[in-house]
């Protein structure tokens, strides 16, 4: 029963949902010319051709804050009305065309629910920015291109879903229990992930952190009860939200993933510790049959150093042991010296080195009292310093400070 | 204790120098009238500033003429811009007039520093920072935020344009004129 449902949902969601909202991986990606290089939430162009209105969130999570458009890149059919809707986060935003262009929502506003819309009639690429946050990467583009509405649905190629080794974009960089492999559970109807598993210097991990499932699979998060209160919340806009953090063992939260994609999530209180995970829905090639995935080439363990790293660690080691090497060199020099010969050499060496005759103390030529010596050189130096400080003070206060426009109240 | 007479001389000179420092600062504040930033600006709700419903000039910040040669500039600092000030919306004030800046923040702590002048204050959400100044010469001054306020702090800036008084009055008349014209037009349409 469950299997048939899964297969049904998988097929239905794969064709219908992907054709409508999925990332256009199979089709030709427009050339934005580096426009999206500094846009953190850019992950391909969303193909929304065939829809009459398309909504873009202004102030979505991304670019280190709520400084993103979501989706940043969107492809629409000619005649589509694109509506920008303000989330109310990240301060005042606006939507203005890059260079000459049709978009201009005016000066930045921050109020949630503000909308701005424009109907794109002619084909082309329309890049736009939020002026105050452009430098943060708050940039977007609308590509107007005909087609896509009818032929996308039947394209069997688009069912692939995410590739075998999805690009998590550094999501797992600080997750200690992620070993580079996405656990393949495409053969299971329901998948369990433990919350509060050992990892990240405590019980601050999801296990497994990355898992691949087929569309229609129910994923259940089970709390281990360790590591304090945890929750499961999608990164940015996403379907997952288990609510506030709870710590009770046995708590569960489940979600059924219908649409293909990469769903990143984190435990909000422990995100900075690396308590992050991802669910990959769909794919790779061949769907549930291909159980061979899992990144076998990533098994190499141990430390691997590149050329410059070898050089660096080598010189650090050398520096660390240099006193020892120096001591060894000294010892060798000492031993290499011919033994001292002289009268009764053996006897003298036993009693230590020959005493050196000290120089006799000479009588002072003249004795001076405390006040009889005048350190004229020192006095001149001190006087020079005083003059210097005085000049600097006059210049700084009367010229630099008072010479400028000052606060007068 | 024996103190050499040279030492006596330079100890005395050092004390004299310190007295001189204090005297110049006293002269600056009393004689020249250099002011300090204090809490005279009063308090305001940052949330209301953000929503634009304070019921003050901060809802539509800009320059307000408050008297003969007296102007008040209302500036809202927010991530990552000054309104007015940033972008193609510089603060415009006439030369030779007493200009009071009333600056507040809609979100986080910002700075308000008019470059190459001594106008420099912290902008704290919930607090209005008030500083007055007189620009004698026309010119353009930079305006920067000098309190770290977020990822794009380094891009937060603007400019203050000091224009000759006659030119400033003319501009204002033009603006008023166009507003009057628009009003007249509306009335005519009705």
Automatic annotation (TrEMBL), chain A:
Fetch the InterPro entries from UniProt. Amicyanin/Pseudoazurin, BlueCu_1, BlueCu_1_BS, Cupredoxin, Halocyanin, TAT_signal
The residues the record assigns to binding Cu cation are: 230, 267, 270, 275
Ranges annotated as spanning the membrane: 310-330, 379-399
The highest taxon in the source lineage is Archaea
Where in or outside the cell it occurs: the entry states: Membrane; Periplasm
Q: Where is the composition biased (Gly residues)?
A: 147-158
Q: Name one GO molecular function term.
A: copper ion binding
Q: Name one Pfam family in it.
A: Copper-bind
Which Gene Ontology terms of cellular component type are present? membrane; periplasmic space
| Essential cofactor(s) | Cu cation
Using the record's annotation, list all stretches that form the Blue (type 1) copper domain: 58-144, 196-281
Region listing for Disordered, in residue ranges = 142-171, 335-364
What does the UniProt cofactor note say? Binds 1 copper ion per subunit.
* Record keywords: Copper, Electron transport, Membrane, Metal-binding, Periplasm, Transmembrane, Transmembrane helix, Transport
* Name assigned to this protein: Blue (type 1) copper domain-containing protein
Q: Which organism is it from?
A: Haloarcula sebkhae
List the lineage, top down.
Archaea, Methanobacteriati, Methanobacteriota, Stenosarchaea group, Halobacteria
TrEMBL record, chain B:
Q: What is its main location?
A: other
What GO molecular function terms would the record report? copper ion binding; cytochrome-c oxidase activity
Q: Which Pfam families match?
A: COX2
Q: Which residues cross the membrane?
A: 9-30
Record's GO cellular component terms: membrane
**Matches recorded under InterPro entries:** Ba3_CcO_II_C, CcO_II-like_C, Copper_CuA, Cupredoxin, NosZ/Cyto_c_oxidase_sub2
Annotated signal sequence range: none
Kindly state which keywords UniProt assigns to this record, in alphabetical order.
Copper, Membrane, Metal-binding, Transmembrane, Transmembrane helix
Start and end of every Cytochrome oxidase subunit II copper A binding domain? 68-174
Q: Provide the protein name.
A: Cytochrome c oxidase subunit II
Q: Which organism is it from?
A: Haloarcula sebkhae
């Amino acid at each position: 029963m469950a299997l048939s449902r899964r297969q049904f949902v998988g097929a239905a969601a794969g064709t219908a949902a992907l054709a409508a909202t999925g990332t256009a991986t199979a089709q030709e990606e427009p050339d934005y010319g580096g426009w999206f290089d500094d846009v953190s939430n850019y992950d391909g162009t969303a193909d929304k051709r065939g829809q009459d209105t398309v909504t873009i969130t202004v102030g979505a999570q991304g670019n280190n804050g709520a400084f993103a458009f979501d989706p940043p890149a969107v492809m629409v059919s000619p005649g589509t009305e694109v509506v920008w809707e303000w989330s109310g986060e990240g301060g005042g935003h606006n939507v203005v065309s890059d260079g000459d262009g049709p978009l201009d929502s005016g000066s930045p506003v921050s109020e949630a629910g503000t909308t701005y819309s424009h109907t794109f009639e002619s084909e082309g690429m329309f890049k736009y920015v939020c002026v105050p946050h452009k430098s943060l990467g708050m940039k977007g583009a609308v590509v107007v291109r005909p087609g896509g509405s009818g032929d996308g649905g039947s394209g069997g190629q688009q069912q692939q879903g995410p590739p075998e080794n999805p690009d998590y974009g550094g999501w797992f960089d600080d997750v200690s229990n992620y070993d580079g492999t996405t656990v393949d559970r495409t053969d299971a109807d329901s998948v369990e992930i433990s919350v509060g598993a050992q990892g990240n210097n405590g019980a601050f991990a999801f296990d497994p952190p990355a898992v691949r499932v087929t569309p229609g699979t129910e994923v259940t998060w089970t709390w281990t009860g360790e590591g304090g209160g945890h929750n499961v919340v999608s990164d940015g806009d996403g379907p997952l939200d288990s609510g506030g953090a709870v710590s009770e063992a046995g708590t569960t939260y489940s979600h059924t993933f219908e649409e293909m994609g990469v769903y990143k999530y984190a435990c909000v209180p422990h995100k900075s510790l690396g308590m992050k995970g991802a669910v990959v829905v769909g794919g790779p090639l061949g769907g549930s049959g291909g159980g061979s995935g899992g990144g076998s080439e990533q098994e190499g363990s141990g430390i691997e150093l590149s050329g410059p790293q070898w050089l660096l660690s080598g010189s650090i080691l050398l520096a660390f042991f240099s006193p020892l090497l120096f001591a060894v060199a000294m010892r060798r020099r000492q031993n290499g010296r011919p033994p001292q010969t002289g009268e009764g050499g053996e006897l003298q060496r036993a009693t230590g080195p020959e005493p050196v005759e000290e120089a006799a103390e000479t009588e002072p030529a003249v004795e001076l009292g405390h006040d009889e010596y005048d350190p004229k050189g020192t006095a001149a130096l001190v006087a020079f310093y005083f003059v210097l400080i005085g000049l600097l003070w006059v210049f700084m206060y009367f010229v630099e400070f008072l010479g400028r426009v000052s606060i007068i109240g | 204790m024996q103190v050499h007479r040279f030492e006596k001389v330079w100890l005395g000179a050092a004390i004299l120098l310190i007295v001189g420092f204090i005297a110049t600062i006293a002269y600056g504040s009393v004689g020249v009238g250099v002011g300090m930033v204090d809490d005279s600006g009063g308090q305001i709700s940052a949330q209301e500033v953000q929503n634009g419903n304070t019921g003050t000039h901060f809802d539509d910040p800009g320059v307000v003429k408050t008297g003969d040669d007296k102007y008040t500039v209302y500036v809202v600092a927010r991530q990552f811009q000054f309104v007015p000030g940033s972008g193609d919306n510089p603060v415009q004030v006439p030369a030779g007039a007493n200009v009071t800046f009333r600056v507040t923040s809609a979100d986080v702590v910002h700075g308000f520093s008019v470059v190459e002048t001594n106008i420099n204050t912290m902008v704290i959400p919930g607090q209005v920072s008030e500083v007055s100044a007189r620009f004698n010469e026309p010119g353009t001054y930079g305006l920067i935020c000098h309190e770290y306020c977020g990822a794009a702090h380094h891009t937060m800036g603007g400019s203050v344009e000091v224009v000759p008084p006659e030119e400033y009055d003319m501009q204002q008349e033009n603006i008023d004129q166009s507003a009057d014209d628009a009003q007249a037009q509306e009335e005519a349409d009705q």
